[in-house]
């Protein structure tokens, strides 16, 4: 009877220990010749919230111990100084690592539970992420369609052979193996789907012949909806580029107001389950930060309806509120200032026209350097539906007025005393010169348009004018 009670007790203790092991991984280690006094492990606990959480521990005599919250298998980044290596973690892992800071990747070695998985990752990084032979940039991207495909096939073959050879001697978990395969397969897929756009960027031309239809047949053979893919950050990057590719194929440019909305819709049509949610979450974040306010609001409403979780709602609501004041389409702060003759000047006076708004000062060296280019731009577009409104921020109003009149500066010239003014804060000005492009309804087109020194500044403005006129017809 006592033996039975003891067995029950031991079983309970094992179960309790297992429960406490859940939810964390322990990493200990020793650093020789440390590059800094800390070790950081960066994780992304929720794949639908594209934001890192950093776990930091201080070195003591070169040694450290860290507990990382882990509720399911994740791939994190271990950072020390400027060095970084991926780390695979599962609940209950107890890893010990040793490395020389001066030779980080060459010397890092893992022991303990999870060592096989992480030694593979370190070896994979050394071989396939560091050796130039396997890199797309700077030379392989210049290869022809056929040659580039051959390069990717050769690299993928080596990667698969390397995985099989390693795991034959060093067993890894089934979940890890699926992650490793996803890294290989979607590394291939991502480099192929971005081939044309990256090649155009490197060769600085958009006149390259598009790859053949055969080049993209690989897209039809990908398993995009397997939940095992979600451990792979390469897969997450691929999802973004996948939506971008089909959006471009639909004739939508990144500069179009509906770009992110179209990408979001395409991701919803072509993907399912968690892959769909993750892709749309990343596109939504980009739209909140860079997209048009109207379309971002529509996407946010749809995402909330289809992904009901308090932490998701809290994250995207906070991000949206932080960015909405200067989002494309949000109303530019109005003002009422005086020109050199004392007449009133308001931003709202120019509704119905595109406004190129600049903030400058006679005491700002860069402002005065760019002024001739701004004047040339003003002259070039003087007969177009655009108004150049320039707000001087001098402390000395008379000096500003003499500069405007003495140099016969074109455009609308208005005065605002100093950088401490409320309008400066409302436009979130940190430095000058600062430029804004505002649409015919008084909403932001861009909070960082091309500067007057950029040769494409005039073409950008003309493009927006043409789009505005086309939308009226």
Fold blueprint:
Elements: H1 2-21, E1 23-32, E2 38-43, E3 53-58, E4 63-70, E5 74-80, E6 83-89, E7 94-100, H2 104-107, E8 109-113, H3 115-129, H4 145-169, H5 174-193, H6 195-203, H7 233-249, H8 259-270, H9 273-290, H10 293-306, H11 310-323, E9 336-338, E10 344-346, E11 354-360, H12 365-380, E12 386-392, H13 397-406, E13 412-415, H14 422-426, E14 434-438, E15 444-446, H15 457-472
Parallel strand pairs: 1-7, 11-12, 12-13
Antiparallel strand pairs: 1-4, 2-3, 2-5, 5-6, 7-8, 9-10, 11-14, 14-15
Helix pairs in contact: 3-4, 4-5, 5-7, 7-8, 7-9, 8-9, 9-10
The spatial strand order of the largest sheet comes to 13-12-11-14-15
Distance between the termini: 91 Å
Secondary structural class: alpha+beta
Look at the structure and give the mean pLDDT: 92
Count of separate structural domains: 3
Level of helix content? 40-55%
Number of H- or I-type helical stretches: 15
Radius of gyration: 28 Å
- What's the helix-strand series? HEEEEEEEHEHHHHHHHHHEEEHEHEHEEH
The biggest beta sheet is recorded as: 5 strands, mixed
Unreliable stretches = 1-21
User: Approximately how much beta-strand content do the residues carry?
Assistant: 15-25%
Total number of strands: 15
The shape is elongated
